[in-house]
Design brief:
heterodimer; A: 318 residues; alpha/beta; five-stranded antiparallel β-sheet; 10 helices; elongated; B: alpha+beta; Beta-Lactamase; 4 helices; 5 strands
Chain lengths: 318, 108
């Protein structure tokens, strides 16, 4: 028996669990837990350890499919998967959610995070949710990847469709296994696993503020758009609101006058006996948070970054 | 070993500086990082002035710009510490170091 391994990764809600489930011949091992952070904006459950499935290509060839958790705070699992379970994988599939405000930011992030791992194996970028948002299109991906210096095949897929995910697997395996009857595998999967649209039903029901308030420790939030317009806020304390607006103006000024340093990503002010105040910038918008002093800053930063990826310009969430 | 070297050895900072009433009292910022220091001084001073106006007691501020992290710690109304670190530095460890070495900073 020849065993191959493929690692699936990508942001929260990009379709990793769904993709593995759609082609697996076994009941997939899902390690979902109820989401307690920003992911509630998109779905109720999120992978916290890993996904695992198996696909038999024929009597002698089998593919083990591993999926990472999407959230960076489970990074220890990324390390464990790349150094243990899937250290000998033939390739990595990066699922990219096309409804994200800046899908290329995800590509940059994961290409960097898995940089060492990708030195020795192929990367396939599988773009999902293009039925909801068709832009960026295929050509834009090719052009951006060229600019980023990322060598990868780009495929637009529906993670629920076993034919599409099998196509990704074929792209990786067919170079080393020439005797697989892919059409037969495809037909078999359609018979056994089917193509159900019920695998994944996105929940686009929360506002940015609601999602922010669902984060443990967040006590208030304010969303600022272009031109310093307050789009929405539930921070009642006028002095805190004014302080956050001042800091937001400062970030604009620094980004303009000290452009040699790059853009201001965030500003955090804290103290031993006061709530933490922070401003997170993302292109033409900012998210200001008032949070409990005991919440760790790295977690806060990641949550804010994810919140901003699904906001303002995303019509599906308006 | 200076306090700056000690912090560098612990991986907490790249450079540091003590400001007294806005003037540099001691600094490990090299000449090539002069522009960065200037931006950090102005930005952090503005932040702490704004904090003072709002009558809040925040004494710590962090600005992440590109790959840099500028941190400011108000030791007393006249003394401000400024650090430049890698953007993913654990700021809690910097805070703990300052709390344990406050007198040394004031004596620098």
């Amino acid at each position: 028996m020849k065993d191959y391994k493929i690692l699936f990764t990508g942001s929260v809600c990009s379709g990793k669990t769904t993709a593995i489930r759609s082609v697996s011949d076994i009941e997939t091992l899902d390690t979902d837990a109820q989401a307690s952070d920003v992911t509630v904006r998109r779905k109720k459950n999120t992978t916290i350890v890993m996904d695992y499935g198996v696909l038999d290509l024929n009597a002698e060839t089998r593919v083990h499919l591993y999926g990472t958790p999407g959230q960076e705070r489970f990074r220890f699992m990324w390390d464990m998967l790349t150094s243990e379970f899937a250290h000998d994988a033939i390739g990595m599939v990066l699922l990219v959610d096309n409804t994200r405000k800046d899908p290329f930011r995800d590509i940059r992030f994961y290409a960097k995070a898995f940089g060492d791992y990708l030195r020795k194996r192929r990367l396939i970028i599988a773009v999902t949710h293009s039925d909801v948002e068709s832009n960026p299109d295929y050509n834009r991906y090719l052009s951006e990847l060229k600019d980023l210096g990322v060598m990868s095949t780009v495929m637009f897929v529906d993670a629920r469709d076993p034919r599409a995910i099998l196509g990704v697997i074929e792209e990786l395996i067919s170079a080393v296994e020439r005797d697989i009857d892919w059409d037969q595998v495809r037909d078999r999967l359609l018979d056994t696993n089917g193509f159900s649209l019920d695998f994944y039903k996105p929940l686009y029901e929360e506002t940015l503020l609601d999602a922010a308030m669902n984060k443990r420790g967040v006590l208030g939030a304010m969303h600022i758009g272009e031109g310093q317009d307050v789009l929405c806020s539930n921070i009642d304390d006028a002095s805190i609101k004014s302080l956050l607006l001042n800091i937001n103006r400062l970030t604009d000024a620094i980004s303009e006058k000290a452009s040699f340093l790059g853009a201001v990503n965030n500003v955090v002010i804290a103290g031993p006996k006061v709530d933490t105040l922070s401003v997170f910038n993302d292109q033409n918008q900012s998210l200001c948070l008032k949070s409990d002093k005991d919440i760790s800053l790295p977690v806060l930063k990641q949550q804010a970054g994810d919140l901003l990826q699904w906001s303002i310009d995303n019509d599906y969430l308006a | 070993m200076t306090i700056w070297h000690e912090m560098q050895d612990k991986g907490l900072i790249l450079y540091g500086c003590v400001l007294q009433s806005g003037d540099v009292q001691a600094s490990s910022f090299p000449p090539e990082a002069k522009k960065q220091l200037s931006v950090a001084k102005q930005a952090l001073a503005y932040i702490f002035r704004s904090v003072e106006k709002s009558a809040k007691s925040h004494d710590e501020a962090h600005l992440e710009i590109g790959d840099c992290l500028f941190s400011g710690f108000q030791l007393d109304p006249n003394t401000l510490l400024i650090f430049l670190s890698e953007h993913d530095t654990n700021t809690l460890q910097i805070r703990q170091f300052i709390d344990q070495n406050k007198k040394r900073f004031l004596d620098v």
